[in-house]
């Protein structure tokens, strides 16, 4: 399970980012080094993206990434690394790539087209606080470098693509897109895909000579990227109370996943039944859990995201780790739930194989 630090005070986020960004841009002499260093601005926006936008990332990239890992096709295009391998004949989960291209170039082009099409139509799912933060970057970059018309777009794409989307493609497990690390071949395919996404985000073509076959495809996406950024930052600047409430709810409920992962769960209305049945084979179900600052949600799995239940944290009256010797499970947690709308006390048990 992966934890993320709690959110910092909402009303300070955007003013703080504007202040540190403006200060960094005011001393920047070479626009080609814009936000390249691991500066305070870079670290702050990186943290905010991870804090608020993991659900957005999952809804945008997870299906394609898991598809690529599951298909495990040979997408190698570097002549120095090419070797003869049998074609992967497995079918995809949903038939998206059931007629696979024969060459690595064609296969990578397919993955790139699917990935970018999903990203470039995702602006409505992006958390509003991220859209407003990126708008600040765009406006401040244009203000400090009025003669560099491309720079504001690079400022936005540098964070959203290079530091977020491409980084997640390169290391999907670290961004909660995959439960396990991909094998060597899938990892290489993800690396090549991340390089292509970075080239699109840089508004250039690929640097490596063996990737020149993608130049036309990448160039065709530059205009789409600019249009996407224009739509992404098209958000109101007003800071009225209604907008702040909406923003707060989005971070607290949708974005701020404090911890997530798989657990075994059992829900009962009588704790004595649980204790009496533990030796006779009580049924536990494997579910994917996400904890926010207000809710504990659980789903069938992180891909389909079929919501099976939600628990308001305010309804949890007691939490304790149960005796592992008595129950036979090392990590068993008991939640006592008392809803204001239900007089009956319910018990919720979760089993984890490890704690980290």
Topology:
Layout: E1 2-3, H1 10-26, H2 40-52, H3 54-71, H4 104-119, H5 128-144, H6 151-170, H7 184-201, H8 215-232, H9 241-255, E2 259-268, H10 271-277, E3 285-291, E4 295-299, E5 307-312, E6 316-321, H11 324-327, E7 331-337, E8 346-352
Antiparallel strand pairs: 1-2, 2-3, 2-8, 3-4, 4-5, 6-7, 7-8
Helix pairs in contact: 1-2, 1-5, 2-6, 3-4, 3-7, 4-7, 5-6, 6-7, 7-8
Written account of the structure:
It contains eleven helices and eight strands. The chain has 356 residues and is α+β, with helices and mostly antiparallel strands. The longest helix has 20 residues, at 151-170. It starts with a strand and ends with a strand. The relative contact order is 0.12.
The description of the largest β-sheet is:
8 strands, antiparallel
Give the helices and strands as they follow along the chain: EHHHHHHHHHEHEEEEHEE
Query: What is the percent of helical residues?
Result: 40-55%
Radius of gyration: 23 Å
Distance between the termini: 7 Å
Given the helix and strand composition, which structural class is it? alpha+beta
Shape designation: globular
Strand content: 5-15%
Average pLDDT = 79
Provide a count of the helices. Answer: 11
**Are there runs of 5+ residues with pLDDT below 50, and where?**
1-8, 84-102, 240-255
- Structure summary, number of beta strands: 8
